[in-house]
Amino acid sequence: MKSSEIDHLSEFAIGFLKKLIETPSFSKEENQTLELFKELFTEKNIPFETIKNNIWAKNKHFDLSKPTILLNSHHDTVKPNASYTRNPYQAEIIDGKLYGLGSNDAGGPLVSLMATFLYFYESSELPYNLIFAASAEEEISGKDGIELLIKSLPKIDLGIVGEPTLMDMAVAEKGLLVLDCKANGIAGHAARNEGKNAIYEAFDDINWFRNFQFEKISESLGPIKMSVTVINAGSQHNVVPDECSFVVDVRATDAYSLEETLEIIRQNVKCEVTPRSVRLNPSGISLEHPIVKKGIALGMKPYGSPTLSDQALMPFTSIKIGPGDSARSHTADEFIFVEEIYGGISGYLELLKGLVI
Predict the structure, then answer these.
(1) What's the CATH class of domain 3-173+282-352?
(2) Rounded to two decimals, what is the model's pTM?
(3) What is the pLDDT of residues 169-179, one digit of tens each?
């Protein structure tokens, strides 16, 4: 591909990213950035569909007899934290860095995938279909984001999830279980040898969560990690508490399903265990998959990702890859290097050219 074509696509993508940065789009409030995408597709004469604050479009010569690749990233952002020294809604390029809220997570990957879709849109020679989707509510794992959108899409054979990975390939991603646990006791007066202290009852289970090691360890993601993050008990100093509740954050791996992980936990603790959901699944793609082998040939490194994305809600094979650095996500004065967007578009195009799935 000519460098002039990369330059043109990149300049267009950067210009659109500036508009996104300057348009607030907190989770569940993405309607204004949705309008930007609607205007873009209308100007390009590309048919599109929307549901809630999600928008998607198919390549011009979509053919149901071919496999379909989903190019997806999100257009919602977290709220800016108090440590910002710049206006988070001012898109500004300084020393090769494009500053602004959502520039890195996930504006850079989003516009790079959009540019890739536009490049291939008119092609009648693709061995696969392409769908570009900008989804909502990723930052809160909401039910009106990718989970809702997928129900309206045709069968997807491969998903490319745009997140900041330095253009390396996240071939596995940890899932999440948030557990509400409750240990029960018997109330009594603290001055007398009465009751059964629920805090003490919780101790054994909390220590189990701290020390237990699951037998199977994921090759890409390592061991499952469990952390007790919140604890509540008691109402006053002279009353033995009859209830102690605590929250456990479980970062699951592809070595077990979420249901299997939950069952092992319940078999080993005395307390009541209630998961907030079993939606956010771990994922993994074979190193023998054609897109992984192509990426490795291009110098993209495979790794296991500890951070959660919409990949957790995709019931099909997927890979996470994109320009930017995950370490910058949700930080004050967020930025992405302009060169990373050039590299992102070039990398996506090289990955897809000649790919057979």
Answers:
(1) alpha beta
(2) 0.91
(3) 999 999 999 99
